[in-house]
Amino acid sequence: MVDSSELNTEEIIGVRLRALESALLRDHSDSSRCLSRGPRKGCESDHEGKSLKTFEELDLILPVRRALADECYEIPTPIQAMTIPPALNGRDVLGCAQTGTGKTAAFALPILNRLGQRNCRAESNRPHGLVLAPTRELAIQIAESFATYGKHLQLRQALVYGGVSQAKQVLMLNRGAHILVATPGRLLDLMNQGHIELHQLEMFALDEVDRMLDMGFLPDLKRIISQLPSQRQSLFFSATLPPRIMELAKRLLRNPFSVNVSPKSPSVENIEQRVLFVERSGKQALLSKVLRSDEVDSAIVFTRTKRGANVLAEKLVRGGIKATAIHGNKSQNARQQALADFQCKRVQVLVATDVAARGIDIDGITHVVNFDLPHEPESYVHRIGRTGRAGGVGMALSFCSPSERSELGAIEKFIGKRLDVLIEQQRSLPQPANSQGSAVVETEKSRLGGSENALATCSHKRKQKTKSHGCKNARRRAVQIH
Question: pTM for the full model?
């Protein structure tokens, strides 16, 4: 034994920390044997089914807790507080929550915790944990989150997605990876080539399942699931749970712990939502006016088509607004460069399509503009969820032409409320053809008091709200990933 009287203060603290770490790892090593067999009596967490207030209450191993402390993460979001305890206990999980609520950490932390406990050697082409994401951007951000939370663990990860050469990806797999983050198409390609074997898989996570099915990945998912070992833990996360997703969940999950933290109104509470009625031919001029406002620091503008994104970005640049486009036809390098330029404020505006923007997780986006209204109401919620993240507030503006009134009606029905109308340029707008539509415009005008400065007024309120909560959020951030 070491005589503490011969040690200085720093040495004493170091000895005690090493002893504590050894004890914690020994305790978690015991619990990992229970986890490997699934949940059993005596291994169940005291917190399962309860609402947690801090990450300190979770049964996480010390290296993971250190990583969370490094990032100043103290308070779990509702989806994290409700799903992480049962996941740590070995339960399958079915989690439903809106985008931007921290779903990535909800599956990343349990996976890192379990594999970190076992501390087994990574074998060539045989991952122990697999995470599937619908898009390259989301897969990259998930991999970054794993790297952040697992930086004190001796775990290797590989990231595979299409649109780039597979050579480096195959090299990472050959070296051995504990955790594999992948998009479905490239994963199947590499499986068919013999570069990936899943029979040793212990944990499987699916993120943004609704978007994955919207993109036509259901056949690929079924083929991948058919290759998974029966003895595994599965974590299943989606922003919505329509019948076809529930059918897939029944095939994938065994006696899952189900959590739905989506509000009855699926629109995000801390995002101010407004609609501006404008002719299609007037959208470009209106967008330029909005983006030149001092209140717009960083904005994502959504279009329906890839060509529309390119054309709009080019027009904005010619008009003196720093903008770039991101969509599926861009090369992976071009997409990553566009995101980097946007995140580093080298460009003010990112013009995007729905698929390309899914998974963009960048703090500080002040505005989302729906240049074209989406055909699917669910896409509206995913779009506006790019702002108001990490407990912040934001503004979502939707341009509605006469031909898009039906899309607007579907959105308002889906979110359970009417969008307030901004009166900006309202005098130049044509009146609706029917009296009912005219009454709607007049009602919204009277609600806003006919102010011609509604845009500035709403933005001023948003800035005041941001200012009042900014210091608190900076010190007590929740994990807001995806």
Answer: 0.61
3 state SS of 462: helix
Q: Name which of 134, 121, 85 is nearest 106 in CA terms.
A: 85
Q: What angle do CA 384, 378, 350 make, to 5 degrees?
A: 35
Q: DSSP E strands: which ranges in 343-408?
A: 349-352, 367-370, 394-400
CA-to-CA distance for 141 and 54, rounded, in angstroms?
A: 24
b/e for 446-466, b at 16 or more Cβ within 10 A? eebeeeeebbeebbeebeeeb
| Residues 197-237: tens digit of each pLDDT | 999 999 999 998 888 887 788 889 989 999 999 999 999 99
Residues 226-270: tens digit of each pLDDT: 999 999 999 999 887 888 888 888 888 999 999 988 655 555 667
Domains belonging to the chain, first-starting first, are: 6-260 (3.40.50.300), 271-475 (3.40.50.300)
Q: In the 8-state DSSP scheme, what is residue 326?
A: E
The sign of the CA dihedral 406, 412, 413, 414 is positive
Q: Which of 150, 159, 80, 145 is nearest to 115 (CA)?
A: 150
Contact between 97 and 103 (Cβ < 8 Å): yes
